[in-house]
Amino acid sequence: MHLYGTQTVTSEGHLAIGGVDTVELAKEYGTPAFIYDIALFRERARGFVETFKKENVKAQVAYASKAFSAVAIYQVAQQEGLSVDVVSGGELFTALKAGFPTEKIHFHGNNKSVEELTYALDAKIGCIVIDNFYEIELLKQLTRERQQKMAVLIRVTPGVEAHTHDFITTGQADSKFGFDLSNGQADEAFKALYKDEYLQLKGMHCHIGSQIFETEAFSLAAKKVVDKMAEWKQQYAFEATVLNLGGGFGIRYTAEDAPLEPAVYVDDMIKAVKKEAEAFGIELPEIWIEPGRSLVGDAGTTLYTVGSHKTVPDVREYIAVDGGMSDNIRPALYEAKYEGAIANNMNAALTTNYTVAGKLCESGDKIIEDIKLPEVQTGDILATFCTGAYGYSMASNYNRVGRPAVVFVENGNHQLAVKRESYEDMAQLDIELKW
Length: 435
Ligand code: LLP
Description:
This protein is α/β, with parallel strands linked by helices.
């Protein structure tokens, strides 16, 4: 069985994370609960940050907080010297509530509202990543009215689309995000921005996909964007100072995934950008990246309590847990695969094949299909691994099931980071009928 980060098995055969017995955590905080291994988050963050430092390259490592947004995780990100990327007023609010340094907040999104942009300008955040022509006009108007300067990047689609082990290079004009690099739209956006009095264009941003396992796709995207920077320098004497290459670094969900160390991704990116910048004789821009999944994904483990069993003779053995697609939509949405274990019985032989179902009213509400576990009893604690990214952040109240508690563990300490949602919490926005 693959254990992540600080996970160990205690002498009683229990799964421990961050030096804390998960069976005790389940007792204290209830289930379902997301347990975050904060030491692992820090290790990953340092892997990215230190590599840039070692190579003496100016950089910002911005945690893509859509992967998991909560006050306490912004605080850890701040402690590690990270920047953050937010994609909504809600994420911005949470980062500000955490006291995150405003100049290290970057704002993304393909349909930022006037209200959200005004909020970002009020907060004087570090950078807005401009996605479309509508936003250019809106931001021009807002900054002119307020006579306020704001650093901006142009988001481009470089025609490199990567997913897991494959990447394709295409004219990728048909994307809801950004300006296409090859059909002239990126140039048009550039011309609308580079002389603006209030919008201070720093460079470009691209994000080529998620759960990517090789570095070639990033290098190719970097090359295409740097080439465009060189073109703008030659034609308009514009010096880009920032190249943001987005996120997408892959992690290990199951034995089929073979991720690289953060240092490897970063090293290869730096090489590609340096090579291209040198070839065109342009200054090496600052390199910014936006890892989300690779910072929090395998740091998160979900604990569930097993309830009912159902045997479908000659077909399948179901066990059902006290959560499901309301706390992890990824299996239903993407056919995502997970590994798991019985946290209170880690050393027993894996004798039985189960399908782990959730408790939500939908047949597709399965967390893991076909997993070998020891004989499972009602009341056992099932741990599913690698649920730290896009689990809690995509959780819902379907069936009015409350969202789980989130607990941080580190060096034998544990603390609640997000309270479990109560029935009362879920009903608090409801208003009684008035007639
Ligand atoms: N930067 C930008 C502009 C992005 O759009 C994303 C993810 C990231 C950074 C972070 O990517 P990461 O390092 O986490 O791969 N819900 C899906 C993932 C959606 C990702 C959207 N954008 C999932 O559960 O797999």
